[in-house]
Prior knowledge:
Blueprint: E1 5-7, H1 25-35, E2 44-45, H2 52-55, H3 61-69, H4 74-80, H5 86-109, E3 111-114, H6 135-145, E4 151-156, H7 163-168, E5 177-179, E6 182-187, H8 192-197, E7 205-213, E8 226-230, H9 236-253, E9 258-262, H10 280-296, E10 301-304, H11 313-332
Parallel strand pairs: 1-2, 1-3, 3-10, 4-7, 4-9, 7-8, 9-10
Antiparallel strand pairs: 5-6, 6-8
Helix pairs in contact: 1-11, 5-6, 9-10, 10-11
Amino acid sequence: MLPFKLVYSDDYYLPIGAHVFPAEKYRMIRRRLQEEHIAEPSDFVTPDPASDDEILLVHTPEYVRKLKTGTLSEFEEMQLEVPFSPGLVKAFWLSAGGSILASNLALRDGIAVNVGGGFHHAFPDHGEGFCMIHDVAVGIKRLHREGKLRRAMTVDCDVHDGNGTAAIFPPKSHTGQPLPSAGGVQSSLRPVHAQLRDSSAGELEVFTISMHQANNYPVYKPPSSIDVNLPDGTDDEQYLGWLDQALSSALRQFEPQLLCYIAGADPYREDQLGGLALTIGGLKRRDELVLRVARSRNIPVMITYAGGYARRVEDTVTIHCNTVIAAKEVFERQ
Ligand SMILES: [Zn+2]
């Protein structure tokens, strides 16, 4: 039995037909985890869909109304890049419910995995790039509404920039100054003392890290608290070096009560929508690095899966299953 819960539903499947997004990956991951005895049936918990009120913590009433009534414009549907259907709306409400549940379980158990979610291209008023609803932001805002959370950090390791996350949680100011020790890392932050001074009680603060390929979707990348703009072909060692620096820099500036790790499988060298060169082993070391850093500082972690478009869908499944194995290894250790 795992020392944490896996939040999952067969209904995470996205009804989008033949598509570069392998909607069947969730069911394949569920099956593989059990077949390979990585997890037992009792490790899985089933989420309820988010309520409309919870979705509205992040998204605009106008956008939610269009989704519920099936009245997106042609342009809005094109931006979403997946065919609209009422079934798709249901699946996204469910994945947001999954991230709410996983966030709560992470606070209880120290770590939880949503075997889905990570839809980081969703904006308050529209969807983009296969992402309709920003499940991670819904989870954060829901916990904040309950008074359980005031400071969250997102660590987005999908190959694509976390533009929706940055739009929902913009950094307080943007200096655009590279950190002295890291030419490719852009920090948007003022000095720590300036941040502490105006952090009023109760207000939600979210520190966002986006590790992404510079030369990839989306064209416009709104600033995160820390952006790591990776060059094409970045390999395991280079990637892990940048990630280590970004995490150290972030945790010097900000003490989160919850770390939301967006563990995209698409920095993989065989990915059809990515241009980095990480190996499957390198991606597992990436997971271990994020999780070890969080564990060593007693920061609860909520994991979501985001993208993964490997030529062989089995590779995407392996990368996502390895994230669970990494969590088991890091969190079982005394
Ligand atoms: Zn991606």
